[in-house]
């Protein structure tokens, strides 16, 4: 674990090399987790950290950690009550009652996220399809996966959209935005002016939603 000090403040960080194009910063429990291509020198990464030091330090201090007996679903925090048995759950007021034999809390949360996002995309289906029809875009199948660095992706080769199940922890408006964003790529693959014109037709307030989403951390 490395660290950078500035004005008496210490920022721990760890660099992980991956086959990616950009440098990504994620806030972990007590340090900044950085993923970067092997061709990006550590010296340049350190320079990036230094330019973002105050923002990263502030985000590290404000990081919200969910307790083992809690779960966040669609922007609301619930008490998580677990009993042994075949997997099923229901939400009653401020508590999510879950019957499961899974002992790994994070795996259990991810299973619930998957169930929730499938239900929510089904609820949004009619409105989404109506919007797609207006802009001349064909509906595509969804794949669901817990991703660490992005909220969704469009696969041009397979003509399908992957959605990050972590979206089930946020307000549903962010899922709706990601769906439209990826569908816009179905019509315009890059982030050109034409792409954003298509997105404008599907979701007028997408710029506001995107700005908020960029400030959030995938945990």
UniProtKB/TrEMBL annotation:
InterPro entries the record matches: UTP_pyrophosphatase-like, YgjP-like_metallopeptidase
CDD domains: M48_yhfN_like (cd07344)
Residue ranges occupied by any YgjP-like metallopeptidase domain in the UniProt entry: 21-215
The protein, known as: YgjP-like metallopeptidase domain-containing protein
Organism annotation: Mariniplasma anaerobium
